[in-house]
Structures are given as structure tokens and as C-alpha cells.
Task: structure prediction
Amino acid sequence: MNIVALAGGVGGAKLVDGLAEILPGDFLTVVVNSGDDFDHFGLRVCPDLDTVCYTLAGIANPDTGWGRNDETWNALENVELLGGPTWFRLGDRDLGVHLERSRLLAEGKSLSEICLWFCSRWDIKHLILPMTDDRVSTLVHSDEGELPFQDYFVRRRCEPEVSGFEFVGSSTAIPAPGVLKAVNEADLIIICPSNPWVSIDPILAVPGLREKIVENIHRQVVIAVSPIIKGETIKGPAAKMFREMGITPSAASVADHYGSIESGGLLSGYVIDNLDAGEQASMERLLIPIKITNTIMKNKLDRINLAREVLAFGRKLFSHRESPSRKDDDHN
Amino acid sequence: MNIVALAGGVGGAKLVDGLAEILPGDFLTVVVNSGDDFDHFGLRVCPDLDTVCYTLAGIANPDTGWGRNDETWNALENVELLGGPTWFRLGDRDLGVHLERSRLLAEGKSLSEICLWFCSRWDIKHLILPMTDDRVSTLVHSDEGELPFQDYFVRRRCEPEVSGFEFVGSSTAIPAPGVLKAVNEADLIIICPSNPWVSIDPILAVPGLREKIVENIHRQVVIAVSPIIKGETIKGPAAKMFREMGITPSAASVADHYGSIESGGLLSGYVIDNLDAGEQASMERLLIPIKITNTIMKNKLDRINLAREVLAFGRKLFSHRESPSRKDDDHN
Result:
């Protein structure tokens, strides 16, 4: 099976890591949110792309999930001494990546070209692509006004109450080279347990991406893994965002967000945590096949196990899809 | 006495450090070459300004003379891993300074404003000013063509043979706020033992600067300290440059370069090293009072001693200048 994973930062990177452990390089393409990208100190910083790459390269900070392992903070300490902004934690090793990426961008290289090059240097076997080479910037509408994403997420620690999201630049963005081809050729698309509002939606907002998935919906399998467990997230503001958008956060509300194929949405399958087994009944109305398993990834084995479960579930749904008689069964 | 020192990098910073140790804050202004400044990885790097400031702040690397003490190299190691350029050695602590300076420049602050602010954070009591807030870029004409200064100096390790120098942008540059005032009010101007071609000449090329010194030449004392000792330099390519420009490098050729007042030049006094005492006779034709002392600054005490000698020499020349009868003597 050809597999495409749509991923944001930490949670997405963990599942991608599990998938990468068990899938050969040619069979997995990861499309990463670049709506979080921003310019800081004149350097281009790509938090989700770097989190995914650092994780696959085995150089991520295991405690935070983002940033580099064995990191030092001497540059930022000097910025602080000079009275500069330190709310965005740029470590020294991490800075090296932003420096070289910014240099190559200024030379005219595209973000996806740079990503491919960096991945080759990091010995990453799987194809990692930003959703687009164009600038798409997530803007958070909040009770404190419009906030650029990192201002909301890091500087203001997700404290402002959100009322909506805008992906500035997305209407004219073009999917990065290779993205539409991978999506088109995928048998299974996995929506990682990333934030639906600000990690996955920006990817789906790039013109052609959602459309291509919808176009292929009857020959592809699309599975999401819920980032919400017992009404909360492991990390990040997804549950808080659902509440502020007037929706009770739950595994079901994430499924509603993406929508079932039957309702014109994307999902042909959905993975929820063992702790949410009791929610299954309330989701029957969605007519989405559900897999219940452990989705909490505390270590490498958890990542691999969840990846195996998602792949097995995907294979099962795909084989139903391929067999016309079984497909008829599904529709009965 | 009000004192202005014109300085480039390492050699200049050492004498400035000695001067700063013995002069109260209000009496010393240092005007620093910014012709070496360049953009690297999208960040503004100001090597001479930083060398002077790091030295006065007590945070310079004592072994190299440039860069920071107790430095780490994690950012640059990661640039290297990604195949990026590492010929310009940017340490992590040093990077913090470039990051914050670049951020403030992008905000619209001027280089001199930023320099004043950084100096206050570093607890530097003396006024350090870049020669200009405008971009002036030293271009080296060489047998390998025109090379931006850092390309010549660091990347090519001064190996190309030079045939001339150009200070691109200098014709329209304006002295940084405070520079002309300090020069105008100075009783003593000290040309530090920096490279005459690429450290001091760019300063003097900023319109108004050389003119102001020449205008005041009969009420100010201008003393240079030779950067050339026994035909060679302690550090840097000044001697090599003299040779390639067709001039035998010597203390005398530096004095010729700046010129005596009598010949329409700048110098009212000149300091040479004990090792060059034998050259004094050959410089008599220049009609410049000469002070012979130790100019090799191996440690803090050497810096302070040289500063004391230069100041004493300056005071002596200044008192001659002030006394009309003595002045007449000089002209006899």
C-alpha cells in the first residue's frame, strides 16, 4: 500500500515515527503543516517540519517533543542579555538548521527542495514534504484580536480565547512538488493525531489537496487518529479550541470536524483510544468504522504499535473497498 | 583632554582597551570601522565593532582576539552537517548578538543606536560608535577579481594579491550621529595600530571625517601607532598589502600613508616600536615627532602601558601646540 500521512508537530511526529519504523522508504510520504512557519530574527523557522524531521532523524528532544536533544542555549542567552525576545525558544543546534535553511531560501531554493536535502543529510529514508512551498500563515482570531500563530501558541501560551482561524495565503498556494502525486497515488491516507484546527486544516486548505482526497474517496481509505482522549489532549490546545469554538471536545467532535464520507467528509475509518471506548455508541450516527486501541504514545514501542494498528485497520478497510461484494455489504 | 580613537579589529581593540582602563568614560570616543560588516545567513555581522565591544566588555576570546570567550559552536556544526558554509566562524554566543542586532535593524533602529544600547547592556562606559550608519562595504581588488572584504579576509585567508581597495557606498555615507561632534571636540585623535588600508582608510573615507580632522589640524593632535614592526604585522595582512601595493612595509611606510601635517597629511605625532628604533633616522624627512616604545600588546599591562605612553606623548604635543612660543620653536 502507498501511504500518505498528514501531520502537524509533536503528536503527528510520534505516529509518523512509528510508521517510519515499519514501512519501507518508498511507501510513506509525510505531508507536513507549514502554516506555523514564521520569520524570527530574519530567519525562517518551520516548527512542524523540523519536529517531524528531528523525530525521524533521532535528534529530537525526547522530553519536549520539539527542539533538539543535547541542546545548548548560548545564542538565546545572549539575546536575552541584550534585551531581545526569548519567548520562542531557539536552541543553538536548532539555530544552525534555521540559519542554513534561511540561507538556501535566500538563494532561491524552495522549502521542499531544502527539506529533501536536509532529510538526505539526516539520513531520513521517507519522503517528508511541506504542504506547500508558498507562504501560508495561520492567523488566530481571538478575544485579543488577530494573532499570528506563534504569537498565540508560544508567546501567549494559547491563553487568548479563539473564535476562528484563517490560513493567510492559502487561496493562492500551490501544493509542494510531489504532494498531489503522493496523495493521488495513496491507497491509505492517515490523518495523524495532530490539532485539527491548526495542524491538519491548514494542509487541507491548500487548493487541490482536499479536492484530490474527495475525488479519490471511493478508491482510497482515509483514517484519522483522534488527538482527543477523554475530552482532553495529550499536549496542545485542541480541546481548548473546540470548547471556545462552542463544541464539546471529544473523539466524536474530531470525527465530526473531518466528516464521514457518507456526509461528504473525508473519513473512511477512525481510530480512538481505549479510554474512549464508551464513546463508540455515540458515534454510530457517523457511520464510520471505528478502531479502538491505545493511542497514547509514551515510548517508541507505543508509536510502533499504534502505527501497526492503524495500518492493519487501513488494510482491512482497503480490502473491503476493493471487493465489490463486501463494498455492497458496507452499504447495506 | 577629549580623545577620539579610530579603530579596526583586534590590534585597535587592544589599544582601545588600554585607553579605556585609564580614561574616564566621558573622555574617550571610539570610532570603529564598519567597512568589514556583511550579511551572512541573512544576519548583519559587524566584526570590528564586535571585537572592540567584546574586548571592552571583557567577553572577548583572549586567544584569537576576535569572537567570544567560553564560546560553543553547536549552530555552526549543524550548518556544516547540512552542507552549509562554515568559513566564517560564528560561535553560538556571538550569534546571539547578530540575531538581536539584525532584529533591531529590521525594526528600523540604526547601527549606532543599537551599538549604544548593546554597550549599555555590556556595561561599557566609553562611547563606541560605528563610523557610519549607512552601508559602506570594503571591496578588495585582487588578482582573483573584486572580492567582498570577508571573502578576501576570511574565506580566502588574504591569499589573493591585492591591487587596490574600494569603499563601496562611502561617497554618500554620513558619519554616524556623534562622530563628527566627537572628532570636532577632540584634543587628541589616536589612529590605533589597525590596518591602514582596510581598517582606518574606510573610516577616513566617510565624507566629512578626514575633512574635519584636516580642518582642525592646527588645534588638534593626531597620533598614529604603527601596526608594522620590523616590516611585519602582529596579526593581519597589512604588511602583505603594502608589498603588493608596491611599497616596502615598514613603520615609515605607514607614516607616509597617513602623511605628516607638513605634507598635507594627518599626523602630528607617530609611535613606533622599540624594535624599529633604527628606523627613526629614515623618518626624519617626514618632520613628524616620533615616540619609541613597546607597542606589542601581549597582555592587559602592555595595553595600559602603551595607552599611557600615547596619552603622555599626545599631552606633550598638545602643550607645544597650545604655547605659541613653543609652536614657533617647532616651526624653526
User: Anything to note?
Assistant: Residues 20 and 295 of chain B are 17 Å apart (CA to CA). The interface with chain A takes residues 41-43, 71-72, 74-79, 81-85, 91-97, 99-100, 102-104, 106, 117-118, 121 of chain B (CB under 8 Å).
